[in-house]
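Sample entry (176 residues):
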Amino acid sequence: MTPAEQNPMPELVDRIRRLEDIEAIKQLKARWWFACDVRDIDGMRACYDESNFLIDFGFIGQFTDMDTFIAVFKSLACHPTHVDMHHGTSPEIALTGPDTAVGRWRMRFQLLETEKQQVQLMSGYYEDEYVRLGTEWKMRVSKYTLMSNLFLSSKDGLLAIDQIGSAPGLVTEQGN
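Predicted structure, serialized as tokens:
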């Protein structure tokens, strides 16, 4: 009989720890998206290892300085006429070491621009890298790849498609 067969507890403890780490990473990403939706800047900052990170949002830009990223975020999203929500699904999390992990997520984003009566529905996926700092998991790399983008606008109560496909862009860039 092998030592693991004689005492399965160390293996069980390791399996539980791995599941708890994966769940903590899922919770981290959920906190990130919620903080973005409610414009909680401190909450957004708390999700990243600010000393060493990369946010790559494709057509929006790449950021290695949190203050620069926050300034861009505020200019794009922090308007009373913007109502948006991030929907993250299908997480694939792999622990790559005791304190490191990678993940891939599907993400659907919706933005209602109430003043201009515009809607944006965007979908794509994130590829992330995570690190445990002390007892907390943080994001170190987050790269978004756009898969589809749909802009709609309402004029005189009629909804019209302004753009459909995979071209990048933001509803705020669309003419009215």
